[in-house]
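Before we proceed, please read the two lines closing this message. Let me know whether the structure tokens fit the sequence:

…
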Amino acid sequence: MILPAGEPAPTLFEARDLSLSFGGVKAVRDVSFEIRRGEVFSIIGPNGAGKTTIFNLINRIYDADAGTMSFNGEDMSRVPGHRVAELGITRTFQNTELFDRATVLENLLIGRHVHRRTNLVAECLFLPSARRQEVAFRSYAEQIIDLLDLQASRDQMAGALPYGTRKVVEIARALCAEPQLLLLDEPSSGLNPEESEDLAFWIEDISADLGVTIAMVEHDMNLVTTVSNRVMAMADGAAITTGTPSDVQNHPEVLRAYLGDFEGSDVPGEREGAPLARKEPSAGEREGEPLARKEPSAGEREGAPLARKEQCEGEPLANKEPPTVEH
């Protein structure tokens, strides 16, 4: 996505010095970042870097040990988890979490529950207020179905859908809550290249047509480079750098996190100009040691008769003439 030139967009979400430990493991260490309104902000890093844990902190699944989070300028560090969607933050998961025995449309309508304004009595009696609300909910769900090309799957059970379609349905359900900030946790995992390419177009459409700000955890660098305005790289629970996709990809600390530390490596032969490591000699190859004797097979041991070759059926044994000895 291309944001308008000029001043940076206002900050929608901001985290400062977030930390979280699980026992003795530091999952997140003093991480600070901001997500600007209207952008696509991606978080990358090796497995175990703490990327999904950041999303779980934003969603209030976990309580941070230290640090603060603000959304639209208001502190949300102690907001209950069930109120996060009401604030305007929704998410998807690495593994799809759909209601398999409900249709695609019914799954999307579940995403509208945060906008419910009628009471139980009005809904049970299906009073005019409940009917108007139901019509409005279905109308918005149909818009999302059209946006993400889900018409063919509209009335199918979610559990019967291919995996790639299920991933799109989960994004659609999150959009039905009309979020300001959409968190996508590895949306391309399990997708084939064609589906990943379609996903890139949908992310751009969601940002441009719906005005939704997107934060994405992703391993597919082609997707990250295509759709992201800014990228934050993480490793071992800490933020390495934040910048444009090209700047982050070429950052030496990011390369080291993904590829290892080649400069100054203690492995012989990896340092510049260092000779290749010599193969450790085997027994018998070391200086002064006799070659190891090969263990004789059956029939080669001292005093043992040579094994007779298996006779083919119906074939007489070959009589070999003894050698002539000259006196």
